[in-house]
Amino acid sequence: MEATTTVTRDEEFYMALVSVKVENVLFRLPAGQLMAQSEHFHEKLSTLHAPTNCNGNGGNSQALAGSSDEFPIILTGVKADDFKSLLKCVYPRNLGVIPNLSKIEWIGVHYLAHHFRMAEILEASKSFLFNMDDFITKIEIGARFKYAEWRLKAFEELVYRQDPLTIDEIRRIGLEAATQITRIREVRLKSMSRLRLTTEWFGRNYNEHCAFCKNQIKIDNDTKQCQTCNIVFYTEDKQVDEILPVRLKEMIAEVLGVTAKRESDAASADDATKSPQPVTVEDRSPKRKR
């Protein structure tokens, strides 16, 4: 009689798989990498269980959530396409190489990486999206996640852009942001012109007035600026190149600072009126409109 051989599972290379259902799509994934990349999944895969189900023999069995296609982890409020894009980052075809994703894919990855607390993937998505030329999307993402630097850069890019805001862009960023950008653009365009000052002489002294609002301008060293119109007057090209960008950045920072404070106050007031709610997979899923 042959001796019975005991078979053991290797502790390092025997990999567990997990089933995840997103919309009507099932994904079967190595659990280890998903847990290593995501604090959210590390917690959920350790604690979530499916309800008790009846087995084929009439007894009761407790199945781990995600252990099979019959008992998947169900993610609500998540698009299957976005989740698939996220998985391309979790399980890249070439190890150590950031996948080549489209802008739409990176936007989906960013939302989900933020929600599922995937630090490395979140930083990769931020790097791509921050450097893209889609200024409007940058404002939307910056507003959604309170990225002050994103909104500052996008405002600057739109202020210096040759084309004005379109109707669709105004709809996406909101009337307030569009008005702020348009106002600062007007300051830039007026300041780029060689403005004519109106001068009043009083003996040997004289006052200079803005050609637009007629108010007396402030003279600071060699700089002449209308405080009412925020327009910088200059006599040499290098002056506007040195002075105007600084002034415009100050104006943008000022309006965004006011906006950020108002949003913070509104959020605090909103939180104060809400009673604490239990956090679940469904409750924490990002709500995003395409």
Which helices and strands appear, and what pairs or packs with what?
Layout lengths: L16 E6 L2 E6 H7 L1 H9 L5 E2 L5 E2 L11 E3 L4 H11 L12 H13 L3 H12 L4 H11 L2 H13 L6 H7 L1 H17 L6 E5 L2 E5 L8 E3 L2 E4 L4 E3 L3 H36 L18
Parallel strand pairs: 1-5
Antiparallel strand pairs: 1-2, 3-4, 6-7, 8-9, 9-10
Helix pairs in contact: 1-2, 3-4, 4-5, 6-7, 7-9, 7-10, 8-9, 9-10
Protein name: BTB domain-containing protein
Organism: Schizopora paradoxa
- Remind me, CATH topology of the domain at 17-47 and 64-132? Potassium Channel Kv1.1, Chain A
Q: Could you state the oligomeric state of the chains shown?
A: single chain
Order of helices and strands: EEHHEEEHHHHHHHEEEEEH
Helicity level: 40-55%
Structural class based on helices, strands and sheet pairing: alpha+beta
Question: What's the N-to-C terminus distance?
Answer: 67 Å
Largest sheet: 3 strands, mixed
Shape: elongated
CATH class wording of the domain at 17-47 and 64-132: Alpha Beta
Radius of gyration: 29 Å
CATH architecture name of the domain at 17-47 and 64-132: 2-Layer Sandwich
Query: Can you identify the CATH superfamily of the domain at 17-47 and 64-132?
Result: Potassium Channel Kv1.1, Chain A
Question: How many individual β-strands?
Answer: 10
